[in-house]
Write a structure and sequence with these properties.
The chain has 15 helices and 19 strands. By secondary structure, the protein is an alpha/beta fold. It has 2 domains: 18-211 and 223-246, Rossmann fold, CATH 3.40.50; 273-500, 3-Layer(aba) Sandwich (Rossmann fold), CATH 3.40.50. It starts with 17 loop residues before the first helix and ends in a 24-residue tail after the last strand.
């Protein structure tokens, strides 16, 4: 008997697609560029510009455009671009070099990282490890905040490069990518590099340091661990605008995106119904009904009952074993993803079909876990399946949620953070962690949990939100969890008898757990 999935119960809301949706992002970027031009003129305008985005909104494209437009302004001769992590600045340096020319862009990086730089970066940007080695022709310097904000670095940059058009600082504009991932105390080390700062990023990102661990607890108005834009959003010298469209999700996933960004005036999706699909092989039983549900593009939640006890609520080898059982036939028989392609204005222009054997920029399937122990278990699942079916690199990978933010993949499989929990706490109810989990996939999203989520949320006591209002860290009250679950189609599997569950034995190819629908 196949699994019966109940459809989502969210309210139906009209959405724009294709060029009508993309036009909103172009207009928002235009407004931000206009605000930046006013700031550069020094006659009027803000000194902080924040371009807020949802996950998959194409913010990197907007950032590159803003950098190019700023350098066309006679009041801007040199800019810096920074972020928290190298994995963010490396692709930015390549993209900027493609747009402006390799002689105009320099990646400023520690010497020991140069041997590991991707070929795409080396082909499209200059590279320097010290200020004196930065080519004088470069008008865009890209580096992480720890490098650009190192002690004495601002003075060295000013000495070697000279002041920018403003006459006192080495740069006219500081661009911060993934701005909501950079804590306030790190931003403080680079803020003085330019008189104007532009922050671009997903407001749902997880910060690298937990803001709840505030070392300045005696002053509730100051938290150096909070995302730096939250300290400036309400300032009269700050201009804020939202990108109102997302490029990454399927049209069927948009209600889930809206559940996370519920306070936005509008959120549209460039992809329309039918633009994304998953070609499935012939499958049988539970696997057939599960992957058929995922292939619709609608977020899917599978609850499992009757499993042996987990090691901990978020360390659950029995539940992962069920995932392995259901994933195996899909990987054994092969599948393909199909996606409509678009130009820069969101207009359709052909399709792209990707199989396991084809070259692909992003992984096809990622298995996400919350803690390191859990991702170790997920990695073992991946290793077994890769070896068993001789899968090429990039078809199936495992990662922690925190490490995977900013990444994209075709299909996401993750254990719901509330699975097996007895109560809501700061970790399992973190807004950013669940948002990152649910907003990586371009084709299909599958969350798996032990049965009982509804009972947990019905009985959980009310919880306050984060007082400082950092979107990436606020706890999700039970009502918000319930609203998010309404965006999922839901089904239930039951293990017929506990004795039928056969745990894996290291070094053996034991049969997988047998699951049946009831």
């Amino acid at each position: 008997m196949p699994i019966h999935f109940t459809p989502p119960t969210h309210e139906t809301i009209h959405s724009r697609h294709h060029e009508q949706a993309a036009a909103g992002n172009l207009e928002a970027t235009k407004l931000a560029i206009s605000a930046l031009a006013n700031a550069l003129s020094q006659a009027i305008g803000p000194n902080k510009i924040l371009l807020r985005a949802a996950a998959g909104a194409g913010k990197s494209y907007a950032l590159v455009r803003m950098v190019r437009e700023s350098l066309d302004d006679p009041s801007c001769t040199r800019v810096a671009v920074t972020a928290f992590a190298n994995k963010q600045v490396f692709p930015l340096a390549a993209d900027l070099g493609k747009a402006l020319g390799p002689d105009k862009v320099c990646l400023f990086v520690k010497a020991d990282r140069i041997p590991d730089l991707p070929a795409d970066v080396l082909a499209n940007a200059s590279v320097a490890s010290s200020a004196k080695d930065i080519p004088i022709s470069c008008s865009v310097i890209v580096g992480v905040s720890h490098k650009l904000g190192a002690q004495g670095e601002a003075s060295r940059l000013l000495s070697c490069l000279g002041p920018a058009h403003n006459g006192s600082a080495p740069f006219d504009v500081l661009f911060v990518d993934e701005a909501w991932q950079l804590p306030l105390h790190r931003y403080g080390t680079v803020e003085g590099l330019a008189p104007i700062s532009v922050g671009v990023g997903d407001v749902g990102q997880l910060p690298p340091i937990d803001p709840s661990q505030n070392p300045w607890r005696g002053d509730p108005g100051y938290n150096p661990y909070r995302a730096w834009p939250t300290a400036h959003e309400r300032s009269p010298t700050t201009f804020v605008v939202d990108l109102p469209a997302v490029w990454r999700p399927t049209a069927a996933q948009l209600p889930l995106w809206r559940a996370f960004y519920g306070d936005w005036d509008a959120l549209d999706c460039v992809a329309a119904d039918g633009d994304r699909s998953i070609e499935l092989p012939h499958l049988e039983g539970d696997a057939e009904s599960l992957w058929a549900a995922v292939a619709t593009g609608t977020p899917t939640l599978l609850e499992v009952e009757g499993l042996p006890a987990p090691d901990a609520p978020d360390i659950d080898p029995p539940l992962l074993r069920v995932v392995e059982d259901l994933l195996a036939p899909l990987l054994q028989r092969g599948f393909a993803t199909v996606a409509r392609r678009y130009d820069g204005l969101g207009r359709p222009e052909g399709t792209l079909r990707v199989t396991a054997e084809a070259d692909h920029d992003d992984p096809l399937i990622v298995l996400l876990a919350t803690r390191n122990q859990a991702v170790d278990d997920a990695t073992e699942v991946v290793d077994r399946l890769v070896a068993k079916f001789d899968l090429p690199d990039g078809v199936l990978v495992a990662s922690t949620v925190d490490s995977w933010q900013g990444q994209t993949n075709a299909i996401t499989i993750a254990i719901h953070p509330l699975s097996g929990a007895e109560e809501l706490d700061e970790f399992n109810s973190a807004f950013g962690r669940l948002a990152v989990t649910c907003t990586r996939a371009t084709h299909g999203l599958l969350l798996v949990a032990r049965a009982g989520l509804d009972d947990l949320l019905d009985e959980a006591p009310a919880r306050p939100g984060t007082p400082l209002g950092e979107p990436g860290t606020r706890s999700l009250p039970r009502q918000t969890h319930q609203r998010i679950l309404k965006a999922f189609c839901r089904g239930t599997l039951s293990i017929g008898h506990l004795a039928e569950f056969v745990p894996i034995t290291p070094g053996t190819d034991a049969p997988l757990a047998r699951v049946t629908n009831v």
